[in-house]
Write a structure and sequence with these properties.
It is built from 7 helices and no strands. It is an all-alpha fold. α2 packs across α5. The longest helix has 35 residues. The radius of gyration is 18 Å and the shape is elongated. One of its GO terms (molecular function) is hydrolase activity.
């Protein structure tokens, strides 16, 4: 195989892996909106598929990259620990990392958190109880700053739901466009 052909086949392989990650995130977003959960069957099978695809396409080096991507996705556990994400969101990041590797997954985490922050702020403003929610959130951060005691944020409005799976999908697409 010539150098040009090898490069184009590698580019096609990366497009397939990124496309698979977007497909998994889209399926997770749909189920998150419908059921308020991202199923383990989806995330764990996607992790296995990502590992297998990287092994087949890139050999042992691809498998290592896939494992590093899963580890990068697991770093989102920090946000789970403070109550900002649910466990399904973290596992979705891990599945994305299994397909795309650590670097792409890291950028996807950053972009999706930015998208989520903007979306949450807009939703807060649009809801009737938005100002109260913003005030409570401000008090939460001020309290954490002064007491140096970190605890999970408990929203006063339990009737509203915010699907972060959709933000992960949008952040993933932005990452693909940027990188």
């Amino acid at each position: 195989m010539k150098q040009g052909q090898m490069r184009s086949s590698m580019e096609i392989a990366y497009i397939i892996l990124k496309g698979a990650a977007v497909a998994v995130a889209a399926a997770a977003s749909i189920t998150d909106l419908k059921t308020r959960k991202i199923p383990n069957k989806l995330t764990f099978s996607a992790m296995l598929a990502g590992l297998a695809c990287n092994l087949v396409l890139f050999g042992f080096k691809g498998l290592i990259g896939s494992f590093l991507g899963i580890l990068m996705g697991f770093t989102a556990f920090i946000f789970f620990a403070i109550g900002a994400l649910k466990a399904g969101d973290v596992k979705l990041y891990m599945a994305i990392g299994a397909f795309t590797g650590w670097r792409f997954c890291g950028y996807a985490i950053v972009y999706s958190i930015l998208v989520g922050g903007v979306a949450a702020f807009i939703f807060m403003l649009l809801r009737k109880s938005g100002r109260t929610a913003l005030k409570n959130l401000k008090n939460y951060f001020v309290n954490m700053f002064y007491t140096h005691h970190f605890y999970m944020y408990q929203s006063q409005d339990t009737s509203s739901y915010f699907s972060f799976g959709c933000c992960i999908l949008v952040g993933l697409v932005i990452t693909w466009m940027v990188l």
